[in-house]
């Protein structure tokens, strides 16, 4: 039953040998790896506006373009910086690998922690933003936004447990659709305003009043908010091994195209916002308002824009679903997280990581009630922290490796490191009270946790390791077994256990704890009919604590054992086919087995007796 | 740690031999057994008024006295009827025993089911009513009434787990205090009105208008509501064995006194209500209003009345805490409920029954938000159903046993049976939509459940019973063991298991499931250093389903076993002292053991390897 359900939901199992399946070309790699970066522009412009509008009112649109220009400059630096990472790390240059390789264990773990937080936040943010695109188009769905977001998380979880990676075409199409339709919108909007001078009047009238002046702090805040547009750039350098050969060349090509796309779409959308003087509102996204302005309410193109926006945001969330489980599997192999994160599931994916991501992001959606804006401050700090660590790692890498024109290369990565570090500080400082402090607390906590887990694994490994000659540990002489068989009544289950205990051919003791003299007498009479030479040892339990006395007795017997001797406790256990029937039976034998297993020289033998239906 | 906490909370363990400890005299038995009955008058009058006032308005007070008279008449019949039950059942004549003895299994179970429901409802109702007395005196506590009620349930649970029965004096005093202070209030109230003609004017003015006329249906409804005053009468006949000798004589004396007390208090309170024309309101109880009228707001006697009312209502709840666990233990011995309800705890009480009652009544308090009135319709149906069954059982008892003046006795019980049956029908009919239907559904469901549980126990007993000559079942010849030892890596835990497996002296097979060829090669090299003659059987797992393949292999080996042969699977298990560290380790061995235990001829041996701290 369970296996069948699993195979319907997840598909057939995949063999380990099929691991190296489809790799992608530059054409299909671009949409898959860029969905996160391209999609962030769907909300980055809005975030910048949300900072500027309350202070500057209608005067916000010129600074918006300035902030957009600064973000594009930062993007350019990142692209050149990351092209070099791709050159050096053909096996995939995630921040964790680069930082721990070049900066050491602690910076590596900091990068891993901030990346993990980002992956979880990406899912929550993208799914919430995708939901916002849906509710902008269909306002009637607004009360159900949390459920819609959770449904999307569930869909992504199931899809990834099945292994969505196979269907790269299925993934690429929505991204291209989004890019094409947004570019159509940008061009149509520009034509409308610049050539036909067709700007709707009512939007300008609705602008809030100016309440303050332009200040450096305000610009920094706006810049910090807009930097969410740059998340997802790292995905390409992470994914180098997934490209067709020549992998590195393809990856670098994709990175460049990605930058051009982000540039076009982000600058285009910010320009349109400025031209149409769109005001962000809580129930409709800025992109939705733009589309209404450009194409008119209820037009087909409006719905195309909303639909493709939703799709690409869900695709962006999907980036995390391949990223976090991958990162966790690397961390698991290095013993920094639970080892089960390195286990591949039925469909060859890291199912435990997928499930963890699903639970955590669903939790965030519920806690923040599907409100993207509240999640964003948490988001960018970690992204830029990992950028900084990775780029700093690259600088040290060049210093160590040297090689052709290494100083030149080190300078490029150095510029990347410095600018991302400055951005990180700006975001942390300006967004501190808005929630960035949460991330700054979470990162050290996660790092300490990972160190503790590593320590535990090291400890267990040291305990289990065979250091001396393994052959010498195998006993050459035979040891006669000491066997203890508890008895509470003479029934078929006991007799089965007794037969097994007799077959072990050791010193057998049959032991009874008496809570009621009349019951014990009946038992002894029944036992007498078995005709055994072993006598029953009876102990009185005036306080009715049968298990406690049995454990004391086992402890006493264990103390008397000689070298290499083990005490074998034979426990009859009857098995009831329907699990819920177990409520009707004493769970004492289960608890008893659990406590007996914590004794060094006590072996527990479970003899099943199956109750027929 | 845990044992210490337990002993602080619950006291020291009590020996089984001390079971027959303090029994009570008539003087202390009266307050203990009557608390339920006497306390119900604290809300019964109010319930009658709540039915009458909305229809009759100020004209309600004469019918109130009529209804009270009918209830007193019913009480008189019950007392004579139950005196005869005491005579016949010196071992305690609960409805379950009397009905199943004389009417058969099904009526007995119906009585048991309705009694069980009543016990749970008694706790919820009494605790809610006690809370209402507190919030009437201190209205500021009204928003916390659910928490206060839950606190009282917790207090009763803890008290009963400790075994409150010992402290009969502690229990008797509040009841006597209540009786004395209520009688003082009744006398003072009567004197004030009848001699000094001192009735507060404003209360009469606040009376609602008459909206309808007096009808038979209205009177029946009022009667049904007031019958809650009669619950708890059965407690005396249940508790006969707890009396000092002559037990039956003492019990009958107590039953008579109880009836006199209920009569005095109930009639007195109803008279006062009529004289003062008290109107029931949601935030203050009728008794509280009476006390205000008689003694004045904020007087000492007012608070004495409220405090003793609270105390006696809590005591009434306590009746259930000895009643339900006792009933469940009898049902458990007859295999109609889980056997663990017959286990005596540390302090000799039936702790599982106490805990069940606590959870269920707390649940009801939360669901009904501590509102007594909503719970009452659920309450009385079951009580009168069990009265009827018990009295009908007594009639059949006399017919069967005959003896001196049996016809006379049968007539008395017959009158009891008929009147309680009529009352039961009245309550069920008039209160049907108010919630009585819930009880009428719960009773058959509980009966079916109890029958199913009995069937299961009978089935298990038949499966385990040794029917033929037990000695013949013990094998006379020795069987060579087949042993399977799975290996995933060569470590100290495996070597410990290996040594044990070798000591068993059977056919040992060492079995490895390979998910990764390089890991397997390393393993085989390490294994070679052990210098064993047993070769490792290696199976490939292209789908990484190690446990599944192992279980298939065990199944295949089990099929090849000869008669009386068992397959012993030796499972190394490493034990980590801190339980939460287990999250970091695969739980596969635990799941594996659980599935292997469901195979008839497979014995599972667990070899512990304890990881040092």
From TrEMBL, chains A, B:
This is APC family permease. It is found in: Membrane. Gene3D superfamilies: Amino acid/polyamine transporter I. It is a multi-pass membrane protein. Keywords: Membrane, Transmembrane, Transmembrane helix. One of its GO terms (molecular function) is transmembrane transporter activity. GO terms for cellular component: membrane. The chain crosses the membrane at residues 64-82, 144-161, 173-195, 215-233, 254-279, 299-332, 353-370, 376-398, 410-429, 435-453. The keyword Membrane applies. Signal peptide: none annotated. It comes from the Bacteria.
């Amino acid at each position: 039953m369970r296996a069948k359900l699993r195979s319907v939901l997840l598909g057939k199992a995949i063999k380990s040998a099929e691991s190296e399946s489809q790799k992608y070309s530059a054409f299909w790699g671009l949409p898959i790896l860029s969905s996160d970066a391209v999609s962030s522009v769907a909300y980055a412009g809005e975030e910048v506006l949300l900072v500027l509008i309350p202070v500057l009112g209608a005067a916000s649109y010129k600074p918006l373009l300035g902030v957009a220009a600064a973000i594009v400059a930062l993007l350019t630096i990142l692209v050149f910086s990351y092209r070099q990472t791709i050159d050096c790390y053909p096996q995939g240059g995630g921040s964790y690998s680069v930082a721990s390789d070049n900066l050491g264990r602690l910076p590596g773990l900091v990068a891993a922690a901030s990346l993990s937080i980002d992956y979880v936040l990406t899912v929550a943010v993208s799914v919430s933003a995708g939901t916002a695109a849906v509710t902008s188009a269909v306002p009637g769905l607004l009360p159900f936004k949390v459920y819609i977001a959770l449904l999307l998380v569930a869909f992504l979880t199931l899809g990834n447990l099945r292994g969505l990676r196979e269907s790269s075409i299925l993934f690429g199409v929505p991204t291209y659709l989004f890019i094409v339709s947004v570019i159509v919108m940008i061009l149509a909007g520009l034509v409308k305003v610049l050539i036909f001078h067709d700007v709707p009047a009512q939007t300008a009238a609705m602008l809030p009043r100016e309440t303050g002046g332009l200040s450096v702090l305000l610009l920094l805040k706006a810049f910090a908010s807009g930097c969410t547009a740059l998340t997802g750039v790292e995905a390409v350098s992470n994914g180098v091994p997934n490209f067709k050969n020549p992998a590195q060349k393809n990856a670098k090509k994709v990175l460049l195209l990605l930058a051009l796309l982000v540039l076009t779409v982000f600058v285009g959308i910010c320009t349109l916002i400025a031209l149409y003087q769109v005001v962000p509102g809580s129930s409709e996204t800025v992109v939705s308002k733009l589309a209404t302005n450009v194409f008119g309410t209820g037009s087909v193109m409006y719905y195309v824009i909303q639909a493709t926006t939703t799709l690409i945001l869900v695709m962006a969330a999907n980036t995390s679903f391949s990223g976090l489980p991958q990162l966790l599997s690397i961390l698991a192999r290095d013993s920094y997280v639970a080892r089960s994160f390195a286990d591949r599931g039925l469909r060859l994916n890291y199912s435990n990581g997928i499930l963890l991501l699903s639970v955590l992001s669903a939790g965030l959606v519920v806690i923040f009630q599907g409100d993207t804006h509240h999640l964003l401050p948490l988001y960018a700090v970690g992204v830029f922290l990992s950028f900084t660590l990775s780029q700093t790692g690259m600088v040290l890498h060049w210093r160590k490796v040297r090689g052709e024109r290494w100083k030149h290369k080190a300078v490029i990565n150095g510029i990347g490191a410095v600018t991302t570090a400055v951005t990180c500080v700006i975001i942390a400082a300006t967004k501190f009270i808005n929630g960035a402090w949460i991330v700054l607390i979470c990162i050290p906590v996660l790092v300490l946790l990972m160190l503790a887990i590593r320590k535990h694994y090291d400890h267990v490994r040291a305990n289990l390791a065979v250091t001396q000659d393994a052959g010498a540990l195998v006993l050459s002489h035979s040891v006669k077994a000491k066997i203890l068989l508890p008895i509470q009544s003479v029934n078929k289950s006991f007799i089965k256990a007794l037969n097994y205990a007799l077959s072990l051919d050791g010193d057998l003791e049959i032991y009874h704890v008496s809570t009621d003299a009349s019951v014990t007498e009946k038992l002894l009479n029944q036992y007498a009919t078995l005709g055994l030479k072993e006598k029953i040892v009876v102990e009185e339990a005036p306080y009715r604590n049968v298990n406690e006395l049995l454990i004391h007795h086992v402890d006493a017997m264990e103390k008397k054992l000689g070298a290499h001797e083990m005490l074998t406790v034979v426990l009859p256990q009857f098995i009831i086919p329907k699990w819920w029937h177990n409520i009707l039976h004493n769970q004492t034998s289960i608890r008893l087995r659990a406590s007996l297993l914590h004794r060094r020289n006590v072996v527990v033998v479970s003899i099943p007796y199956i109750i027929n239906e």
